[in-house]
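Hey team,

Filing this mostly as a record. A colleague (T.K.) asked me to run one chain through the structure pipeline before their review meeting, and I want the input and output archived in the tracker in case anyone asks later how it was produced. No errors, nothing strange. Just documentation.

Input sequence:
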Amino acid sequence: MAARTRAQLNSDADTYLPDNTTGDISPADIRQRVKDLADSAKLSEDLATVATTGAYGDLSGKPTLSTVASTGAYSDLTGKPTLGTAASKDTGTAAGQVPVLDGSGLLDTSVLPAVAITDTFVVSTQAAMLALTAQKGDICIRTDLNKSFVLQTNSPSTLADWKELLTPTDAVLSVAGLTGAITAAALKTALAIAAADITDASANGRSFIQAANYAAMKTLLSLVKGDVGLGSVDNTSDATKNSAVATLTNKRVTPRIGTVASAASVTPVGDSNDQYNVTALAVGATFAAPSGTPTDAQKLIIRIKDNGASQALAWNAIYRAGADVALPTATVAGKTMYLGFVYNSADSKWDLIAKVENI
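Output structure:
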């Protein structure tokens, strides 16, 4: 026999157990259908015994389950998953508890007190102060009042919520009856100090302080030149001394010397050179008119030496010589030449009065 499904059993019943319209039902047909039902049905001996009372531990064939605690601390559990530390803490604001946000999304003030970040604003009018985007604790400096205000609330547009910051009372409220910005002139006028008020000065000292000018001070002091170490001063002006006739005894006047080694154009300085030296003339040279403003009868000596080869000499028209002493036209090779000139202011000429050319 074989197990049959419910649909197969229903079909067999219709086939083998008809309504007796086609013949009799044989006992064999009934016996066969009962055996089919027996093979298809689950009888009590086919099921394991199911307990309806008793302890779960008395059951046999039960699945292995992890032990689940119903009482005790979470930390006593075994086989529990690894969770963060906060998972084992109670919520609250006490030490060791986990704080949570309130309905406004804020922590309790005992956990995180209110913190104000203070800004400082500088404005020049009340309207500008009331238009500020400010928070409680912000500072506003009013340049029109020279005062400062702090915002007491979070309503910057309300004038009453801006509180003036008071400055300490100054110990000095006035000076000589003056208040505010005091000028030196105003203080002088207010004090009205007189020379007589200076008690640690002599009468002469007080008079000196009151002198109108230097002349008045000089009169008060009655100084003479000996009082200041000038007893030998005769009060003669430099101009007078410089134009005065004087005899120099045992004095030396050092000549003023101008020098050039070699040049194609040689220009002595007429009013500041007593002697002009050409030390190693290597080219033909023209002596230009001396510069400066010489005085009548001023002397000028020109000393010339070449570089070992004779060099041609030419002279500006301001240099003049007579028939007895002529201006040289060339140097004597390797020799020193001296020419003595005197300035003639009447003719504006430097006259040659002496010449030595073979030294």
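Quick notes for T.K.: The first strand starts at residue 120 and ends at 123. The chain has a mean pLDDT of 82.
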